[in-house]
Structures are given as structure tokens and as C-alpha cells.
Amino acid sequence: MPTLFERIAAREIPAKIEYEDDLCFAIHDIQPQAPVHLLIIPKRVIARVGAATPADESVLGHLLVVAGQLAKKLSLTAGFRLVINHGPHACESVPHLHVHLLAGRQMTWPPG
Asked: Which of 3.30.428.10, 3.40.50.1000, 3.60.40.10, 3.10.450.50 would CATH assign to domain 4-103?
């Protein structure tokens, strides 16, 4: 069964897409935790970061480069946070790796 993000990539489920290329796409989170909350998602399913293999290295790096490009495009000059959840204790809700880009407010430490 396709993941939620595969269905969004296939345009079966609508989403506000901020960015897309051959390897990934970025959408606005439907339950934002900050004024800017994007999800950067690889098109190829990697269940979670701990399941990534050396073959996924270039895709993982690409997600981070895209995050930086999006931060620049959105003028997030005061800063931003990137988050990758792994497993139920980290509040992973979709078994398809994705990077949260959060910005637009003061982040706290330690995170929640």
C-alpha cells in the first residue's frame, strides 16, 4: 500500500507543494508547528533514517541541500530548524522519511 507521501507525489491527495525535483518534493505541513513548516520528502521511499543504506546517501544529502535552498528562497535569515523523526517515541507518523523545516519563531532548547 502506498504511503501518504507517495499518494501526494502521485497527486492522488492534494497538498500545497512548495518545491519539486526528480528526487524529492516539499509540501506545507497541514498541522504546522511554526509559522513556516515544510516537509521535504524523497520520492523514493526510505522508511526512516535508521533504515537508510549507503545507497541512500546522495538522496539524504540532497534533502539537506534542498532545505537550505528553501530557507534562502523564503528569506529565513533569522534561522531555521531541521528535524527528522524516527519511530513512535519520536512522533513519527508516516513510515516514509521526511525532513521538517521549521522557522518563523524563536525555537526553544531542548526540543520537546
From this structure: 3.30.428.10
Give the closest residue to 26 by CA, choosing from 13, 10, 12, 37: 37
> Which stretch of 38-42, 70-74, 107-111 has the lowest confidence by average pLDDT?
107-111
- End-to-end Cα separation, the chain, in angstroms: 32
Q: Is the pTM of this model over 0.85?
A: yes
Helix (H, G, I), strand (E, B) or coil at 23: coil
User: Catalytic amino acids?
Assistant: 98
Q: How many CA atoms lie within 13 A of 61 on its CB side?
A: 6
